[in-house]
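Section 5.1 Outputs to date
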Amino acid sequence: MESDVLVVDDSAAIRKILQRVLRQTGMAIRNIYEAGDGQEALQVLNSQKINLVMTDINMPKMDGIQLLAAIKGAPEWRGIPVVMVTTEGGEAKVGEAVRLGAAGYVRKPFTADQIKEKLVGVLPAAISL
């Protein structure tokens, strides 16, 4: 079964790179949606059935931590795995994301292999949603 993925980052270039990397993993991905911040991501979540969210932490309007909290706080989205993709070096932010329920994180810059390795354990759970 194919998954629908939401990529959230305020950089259009990073969103495009992540889409390309996701396609290169060879994993069963049907659609990849984009959002430039957490508020846009919530709009996509309200209109599409998303199986996985990959989000940056540092974004304007609503950052990745706030987005993660909103997803995990909503009964209809609680089961969606969220992977943080970040340049954030501080363990405090990453630790906060894990405490809030993030399925994991990948540091920028990343490779297709790093993304695939992180998603192998995450997407099967997403597919069964």
